[in-house]
């Protein structure tokens, strides 16, 4: 990467952090995509200050040639567009070469989710008296009963919820806070876990995290939680490929809609900035409406 290109990229990432409150994982994704782009155009003899629309199109073609999905290509182009918009706004460039480049067509896949019966099996398998089981049982409840993102869940502060609280305060994308209702079963699972929480504190020290860990971050990692859920799926006789923290968040959304929740309420609980993101779950809503018509309409 050209020296000045590296400086421009760091300035852009700093802006995302300070002005937009971008999350750590978001920044890491932008850095990855844009470093790949800057390295690619450097091999073509140009920098971020001199790159043209043809250079961007060549990068997208390269991404396609190496087998990246159209959704990944669209994500890369989105990052490139935001970078060049920043460079234009900072007077580093006098034009925006990404302005008129069309996004790769990306089919919107329906989210994977588990059936209610499969979630019940996971909960039954996680229910136990060991500290590890109590922790996993509470984690599972927060994923499914509160619909948290995995990054939101593992980084919950301690104490996240008190006995009298009915809502969990969650800090989500863009450092925005939202209130998520917590049901009684979830509160009971958390209470049981809190009795054994000290078992997971490093060297018996106090931790500011609800789910402490001996790892460098101080709290349970997303990767470790994902592996715990895979192991639990095997124990519950469910294909582990079907189970992940994100799939349980999808199950939360899909099951709520199937049982009568509305999209606006779901949007608030999931922390989606735009209702269009929540609308991907309407495949469940459409099925429920069809069932209502076929069951209750006089001509059915």
From TrEMBL:
The keyword Amino-acid biosynthesis does not apply. Its main location: cytoplasm. Gene3D superfamilies: 1.10.150.130, Intergrase catalytic core. Residues 3-88 form the Core-binding (CB) domain. GO terms for biological process: cell division; chromosome segregation; DNA transposition. The keyword Cell division applies. Keywords: Cell cycle, Cell division, Chromosome partition, Cytoplasm, DNA integration, DNA recombination, DNA-binding. Residues 109-294 form the Tyr recombinase domain. The active site is at 149, 173, 246, 249, 272, 281 (o-(3'-phospho-dna)-tyrosine intermediate). It comes from the Bacteria. GO terms for molecular function: DNA binding; tyrosine-based site-specific recombinase activity. Belongs to the 'phage' integrase family. XerD subfamily. Forms a cyclic heterotetrameric complex composed of two molecules of XerC and two molecules of XerD. Site-specific tyrosine recombinase, which acts by catalyzing the cutting and rejoining of the recombining DNA molecules. The XerC-XerD complex is essential to convert dimers of the bacterial chromosome into monomers to permit their segregation at cell division. It also contributes to the segregational stability of plasmids. HAMAP family: Recomb_XerC_XerD, Recomb_XerD. This is Tyrosine recombinase XerD. It comes from Sneathiella chungangensis.
């Amino acid at each position: 990467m050209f020296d000045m290109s590296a400086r421009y990229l760091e300035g852009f990432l700093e802006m995302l952090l300070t002005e937009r409150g971008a999350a750590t994982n978001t920044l890491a994704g932008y850095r990855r995509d844009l470093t790949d782009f800057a390295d690619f155009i450097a091999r073509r003899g140009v920098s971020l200050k001199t790159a043209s629309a043809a250079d961007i199109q060549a990068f997208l073609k390269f991404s396609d040639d190496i087998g990246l999905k159209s959704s990944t290509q669209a994500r890369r182009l989105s990052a490139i567009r935001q970078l060049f918009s920043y460079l234009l706004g900072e007077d580093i460039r006098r034009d925006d070469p990404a302005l008129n480049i069309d996004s790769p067509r990306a089919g919107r896949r329906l989210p994977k989710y588990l059936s209610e019966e499969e979630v019940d099996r996971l909960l039954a398998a996680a229910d136990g008296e060991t500290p590890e089981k109590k922790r996993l049982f509470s984690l599972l409840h927060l994923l499914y009963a509160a619909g948290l993102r995995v990054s939101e869940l593992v980084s919950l502060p301690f104490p996240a919820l008190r006995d009298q609280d009915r809502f969990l305060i969650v800090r989500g994308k863009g450092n925005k806070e939202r209130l998520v209702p917590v049901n009684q079963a979830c509160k009971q699972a958390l209470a049981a876990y809190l009795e054994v929480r000290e078992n997971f504190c490093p060297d018996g020290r106090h931790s500011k995290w609800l789910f402490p860990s001996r790892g460098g971050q101080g709290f349970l990692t997303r990767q470790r939680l994902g592996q715990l859920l895979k192991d639990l799926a095997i124990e519950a006789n469910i294909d582990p490929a079907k189970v992940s923290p994100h799939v349980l968040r999808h199950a939360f959304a899909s099951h709520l809609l199937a049982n009568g929740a509305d999209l606006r309420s779901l949007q608030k609980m999931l922390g989606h900035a735009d209702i269009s993101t929540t609308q991907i779950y309407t495949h469940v809503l459409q099925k429920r409406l069809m069932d209502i018509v076929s069951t209750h309409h006089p001509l059915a």
